[in-house]
Amino acid sequence: MVALRGDAVKSETYFKPEPKGNAYALDLVHQITDMNNGIYLDEDLQNSAETDFCIGVAGYPEKHMEAPNMESDLHFLKKKIEAGADYIVTQMFFDNDKFFAFVKNCRAAGIDVPIIPGLKPLATKQQLNLIPHRFHVDLPEALIKEVLKAKTPDAVRQVGIEWCAAQSQELVKNGVPFLHYYSMGKSDNIHKVASEVF
User: Fold this and answer.
1) Residues in a beta bridge with 111
2) DSSP-based three-state secondary structure for 116
3) Phi-psi category of 112—alpha, beta or left, where left has phi over 0 and alpha has psi -120 to 50?
4) Cross-strand partners of 115
5) I need a surface site. Which of 31, 85, 94, 124 has the fewest CB within 10 A?
6) Burial class (CB in 10 A: 0-12, 13-18, 19+), 33
7) pLDDT higher at 14 or 95
8) What torsion do the CA atoms of 28, 32, 34, 40 make, to the nearest 10 degrees?
9) In this structure, are residues 180 and 119 in contact, taking their beta carbons and an 8 Å threshold?
10) Hey, which residues does 58 pair with through a beta bridge?
11) Can you give the residue range of the structural domain that contains 193?
């Protein structure tokens, strides 16, 4: 189970939990860990049993947008691991050096669980503006230039596929055992990336 806090609704600037809801992913990790130990929110629940969830959490190679700095972000990521999380899946990134630096910083902070890189192939020119704004990640200048040179939507998609495939190949070459792809409901470009990598 991947424990994610979630995003603010479009009409709000910051995330606001539902009444009695969890304000942070850390709260979800505690709740799932409790369930794994047979402890449920409803203390009167009959015939309850221990669950056996493997718990994943999000990590941010370029820092969570609400974190004041990377040190603070790593501090709270470590708390999620200490609360019972078994692995980390990263937010998308387009520069592998940022992932490698993130892993190094996690290890230095005492975070030793598997860290799975999250990747997304760019698919449209509009994503040059949408992705940095929505996900608070930087796009490498070389990628931007290649997308801007593309003359057709298909050419833009091909640039995204080739960039993501190159990222994937470098990560695998450096011993990363798993890759996670963000499809956003469209999988044909992911299939093309995977066919070039695996």
Assistant:
1) none
2) strand
3) alpha
4) 88
5) 124
6) middle
7) 95
8) 90
9) yes
10) 89
11) 122-176+188-198
